[in-house]
Amino acid sequence: MTVLPRNKSFGYQVNHLARLFARAIAMRNAAVGVMPGQMPTLLALLEEDGLTQKVLRERIQVEQPTLANTLNRMERDSLIERHPDPVDKRQSFIFLTDKARNVARTVITNAMAVNDTATTGLSPDQKALALSLIDHMIGNLTDMVDSQEQEGE
Fold first, then answer.
1. 16 has pLDDT over 70
2. CB-neighbour burial class of residue 21 (10 A; exposed 0-12, middle 13-18, buried 19+)
């Protein structure tokens, strides 16, 4: 059997990097009570507040149960509010609270600091190239996953 060394596997290395980012961000954000898993939701709602859970799930690309749990925790912690849709009572619109908007400044500053630490020693061109390559790989895998999910329907 051929063994793929961990340091030669894109999947392993990117996953390892993501876990390290999450740990570093969790340590920095512990004081404000925002967990790494809540950040995609927070950032998406900062970009556009008042999304439905379905639209939010599509934007941040997580499974429905994962998002439901995240939203429940964020609501418990007074980071979001749900407002029922007056037309369709089965859905609601999700809004950030003032508390979340205030905390977001710290969360974003902390995330930028972690990004800066992770990219220390890289030139601006290297940073741009790394992001471009990661975006390309995300696109490749998104296309593959989307086509396989459509075949399964």
1. yes
2. middle
CA-derived radius of gyration, the chain: 18
What are the tens digits of pLDDT across the range 36-93? Answer: 889 999 999 999 999 999 999 999 989 999 999 999 999 999 999 999 999 988 899 9
Q: How far apart are CA 66 and CA 82, in angstroms?
A: 17
Q: How far is CA 15 from the centre of its chain?
A: 14
Helices (H), the chain: 10-29, 39-47, 53-60, 64-76, 98-118, 124-152
SS3 82: strand
Please state, in angstroms and rounded to a whole number, the distance separating the CA atoms of residues 38 and 28: 14
Residue type, 16: H
Chain-centre distance for alpha carbon 113: 17
